Amino acid sequence: IVHIESPVKVPFSLGQFMTEWDVALTETTIGGLKALAGKEFRAYVDGKPYSGDPSAIIFENHQEIALVYGTAQQQQNPPKSFDWGPSGL
Q1: Helices (H) and strands (E) in the chain, counts
Q2: 47/2 Cα distance (integer angstroms)
Q3: Are 65 and 47 in contact (CB under 8 A)?
Q4: Which of 27, 40, 43, 60 is 20–30 Å from 69 (CA)?
Q5: pLDDT class for 84, splitting at 50, 70, 90?
Q6: How many CB atoms lie within 10 A of CB 80?
C-alpha cells in the first residue's frame, strides 16, 4: 500500500515512487531483473495488462498495481483486487 501526502495536487507516478527507492523500472526491467532467457516482466493494473512503460502509471485511489517477473506460466494469474476492508483505508 502506497500512501501519498503532498501539499501540491499533482498526479504521482509509479516511476517517481521507484526513483525514490533507487530502483530502475522500464518496459523490460525492474531493478537488476531483465526480461530474457525465458523470463518476462509485465505490469498489471487492477488485473489487466498494462502496455507501455510501467513507470508512466499514475497512482489512483484503491488501484492495484502488480509488477510480475517470471515465466509465461507465472504471468497467467496476476493479482486482481485487494480487500480494502470496511474502512476503505
Answers
A1: 1, 5
A2: 18
A3: no
A4: 60
A5: confident
A6: 11
